Structures are given as C-alpha cells and as structure tokens.
Amino acid sequence: MAKHIQAIRGMHDLLPEQSPLWQFLEDRVRGVFERYGYREIRTPILEMTELFRRSIGEVTDIVEKEMYTFEDRNGDSLTLRPEGTAGVVRAGIQNGLFHNQTQRLWYRGPMFRHERPQKGRYRQFHQIGLEAFGLAGPDIDVEVILVTRRLWQALGLEGLELQLNTLGTAAERAAYRQRLVDYLERHREQLDGESRRRLATNPLRILDSKNPEMQALIEAAPALIDHLGDGSRAHFDGLCRGLDEAGVPYVVNPRLVRGLDYYGLTVFEWVTGRLGAQGTVCAGGRYDGLVEQLGGRPTPAVGFAMGVERLVALLEEQRDGLPLRQPDAYLVLMGDEAARRGMQLAEQLRGQLPELRLITHCGGGSFKSQFKRADRSGARLALVLGEDELARGVIGIKTLRRAGEQQEIPLQRLAEALPEWLRTAETA
Ligand code: HAM
Fold first, then answer.
1. Looking at ligand 1, which atom is closest to the CA of residue 310?
2. Distance between alpha carbon 284 and the CA centroid of its chain, in Å?
3. How many Å lie between the centroid of ligand 1 and the Cα of residue 287?
4. Domain segments of the chain: what residues?
5. Does the annotation place 66 within a ligand binding site?
6. What number is the average pLDDT over the span 314-323?
7. What angle do CA 335, 338, 340 make, to 5 degrees?
8. How far apart are CA 365 and CA 376, in angstroms?
9. CATH classification of 19-168+228-320 is 3.30.930.10, yes or no?
10. In 58-188, where does DSSP find H-type helix?
C-alpha cells in the first residue's frame, strides 16, 4: 500500500465535528463587529516579504526565524502572512482607503509562523482581527477594547484578564531603551544567552523573557510607563478613564511589550490561565507610525487579533451549553420507488421551508441501518417513506432525541406540520 502523506507538522485539518464550534465563534464575532460598524476586508495570504520586514521589524522573532519565505518562479521573495495587520495596511494604502477617512475594518484567516508546535501554538493558525484607522485619541482604543469585552459576552467566555501597558512615543522608547540597556549591562552576568544577544538588537523584548532565573532582574528593571512624556501619559490616562467609566477591569502590566515592532502608546492582551503556556487569546495595540512607514500618509491606527484555535479551546470546555445547530430531520427511504420519490419530496420541502436542514438517505440498506445513520446524524426527527406509506399517501415521523411512537402524517400536510414537530422535539 502506498505510504500515507501526512499534513505538515503544526498544520491541522478542521474536521466536521469541530467546524460547528468554529462557525458559532465566527458568526458571533461577525455579529459583534458589525454592531460597531466594522467592515470586513480580505487580503491575499501571500505578500512580498519586504512588507513584513518593514512592518513587523527586522529583529523580531517572527521575521528572524518564523516566516515561511520562498522565491516564486519570477525570483520575487514572497512570504505566507504571519499576521494580518501588515496586509491590511498595505491594502489600505494601495486602495486609497486612508485618504481623509476613518476606516473600521476586520479580517479573518490563516496565518503562518514556523514556531515550535505545542498546545495552543501552531504553524498554521487562524486569527480574527480588527483595525481602526484615522483616529488618534484614546476613545477609539477604549472602543476597540469594548468590542472585545462584548465578544467574550457573546461567546459566553468568562475569566479573561485584560492587561494593559503603554509603549510611549518612538523618542520615549529610544530614551528608555538606553536606560534599560544601562541597567541590564550592569547585571550582564544574570542574563541568559538569548537576552545577551537581544541587548544589542531588541532589548525591550528581554522584558518578555519567560526564563524564571531572570524574573527578579526583570521585576526590578526600570519601566517605560514611569518615563512617559505628557502626551503619552495623557493618552494612557484617557484610556484608563474610559475603561473605568465603562466598567472594564484591567491590570496595568509594565512588562507587556509585544513581539512586533510597530506598536507605540497603547498595547494590551487578554489572557487566561486555562490554556497553559499559550494563554493569550487576543492581543493588540496602537501603531500610529505604520501607515507612513509603509509609504502612506501619516494615519493613526489601533487594532487587535484573536487566536481562533485558543478561543475554540476555551469554548470546547463549555460545548454542551452552546446552541450548535444540528440537522432537523433525516429522511429514511425504503425501496426503489420511495428512494426516487423521496429525493423529490426532500427538494420540495426545502423549497417550502427555507430554514429546514434535511438529510436524505442515499444508498439504500435495511431499515435498521438507515435508522442508525439517522440517529448518528444528530437530527431531531426521522421521516420514514416506504412502499406502504407511498401507497397510502402518508409519511412516518418519529422523534429521535426522546422516546415516542412513530406517527403518520398525510404527505400533503407534511410541510405544514413539520415546524410544529420540530419545535416540540426541540423542547424535549
Ligand atoms: P500577535 O500577538 O502576534 O499579534 O498575535 C495575536 C494572537 O494570535 C495571539 O494572541 C494568539 O492568540 C494568536 N497566535 C499568534 N501566534 C500563534 C500561533 N503560532 N498559534 C496559535 N495562535 C497564535 C498580531 O498578530 C498583531 N497583528 C495583532 C494586532 C492587530 N495588532 C494590531 N492590530
């Protein structure tokens, strides 16, 4: 037998048993985004490599070691997108979306990072993200966070913690960077190899180190939030005030630095303790410099992205309480004549009842085996059509999720009677 070809490590199939949970999440998210006036944008999965180098930053983990980059047949260097923000900004500039306009946009889709796979961390993963352009004040930062809070409510997710920080302006970061480097240099012997390397390239990322032996050093390091200018302070205070007024609890985490270089001022993450090491389910912040950096006019911007696999993992725990829609009915067909007529009957019903989810049995087989399939399909009702029913112009009907005798309805009355049958089967 030929050897099975396996999926690429860290890349997963979404099987039919799992897709209802994804659809539930996607539907709820879209509904919430629309309520705040965000519109969907779809951009290509492949972009010029240069786009990510210039936006995410040369000395970030993503660009240094995680991108899927290759040359295409023309010799262009292309990269499978590791995140969505850069592509949305590129598309906005290219299509003139930022000219004297504000834009509230959202997107979803697969992203690719060559990370070490583990629970909650994959090489192909999915994000749903949101970006607001053209608004500079903390009010939109507040709105973006309110959207996320409403999402958790709409999904029934509890126990997520909002962590906030500010990264100030580029000038404040540069001054702070020097202060931090001076401090870390003085304690160089306590730094691990990775952090020593970052000291020269990206020292702020050292604050993000998970190495337990460095935690005391990191705790005692100077914090950027204590060295802000008036403008940055006012922005952060405005954000905190807005969240207080909206009743959104948060924790200020001065060590929150994020792994992408484009951020300034607000950064935030929603974290849970229920997913082990990969507990960040949503992350984002402000990136006022990025549009200009990529060739557009200066345009303030703020946004976030959620990790769909991580949110689904949380939803998985409460799966039983979720309104996931199963098929309504399964049509059992005994005999050739019934099989033919049944196919027509099913089409007719779908035409008459636009919401109806009906599976028609195909391929014949015994009554017992057909009923087994009906049961396994998750449908609430079985409809039974055989030679005998056909001859008498009736159809058998039986609830599958609770006890009850099979009954009969005249075929002409079926479309009329079905909704009531489904309602009763539902409340069972
Ligand atoms: P990020 O923090 O790199 O930010 O990713 C956002 C979220 O995507 C993470 O919090 C996590 O839930 C999920 N995620 C990231 N990598 C993986 C992975 N390998 N496997 C599973 N899930 C993952 C961004 O990507 C920014 N573009 C967010 C943003 C939008 N900032 C402003 N606008």
1. 12
2. 13
3. 15
4. 19-168+228-320, 329-427
5. no
6. 83
7. 110
8. 16
9. yes
10. 61, 85-94, 138-155, 170-186
Strand order in the sheet with 280-286: 39-40, 103-112, 124-133, 301-307, 280-286, 266-271, 161-166, 251-252
Q: Residue length, the chain?
A: 428
User: Can you read off the two tokens belonging to residue 50?
Assistant: 């240069």
Local structure of residue 118 (DSSP, 8 states)? B
pLDDT (mean) for 66-85: 98
State in words which class domain 329-427 has.
alpha beta
Query: From the CA of 308, how far away is ligand 1's center (Å)?
Result: 10
List C-alpha distances in Å: 81 to 256, 264, 344: 24, 22, 46
What separation in angstroms does the CA of 236 have from each of 133, 139, 168, 203, 228?
18, 11, 9, 23, 10
Q: What is the pLDDT of residues 116-129, one digit of tens each?
A: 999 999 999 999 99
pLDDT (mean) for 19-48: 97
Whether the Cβ atoms of residue 166 and residue 267 lie closer than 8 Å to each other? yes
pLDDT, mean of residues 293-322: 93
Residues linked to residue 164 through DSSP beta bridges, in sequence order: 252, 268
Closest alpha carbon to 62 in 261, 315, 275: 261
Token code pair at residue 332: 């059992």
Residue 83 annotated in ligand binding: yes
Q: Which residue minimizes the CA distance to atom 1 of ligand 1?
A: 283
**Using CA atoms, how far apart are residues 270 and 255, in angstroms rounded to an integer?**
14
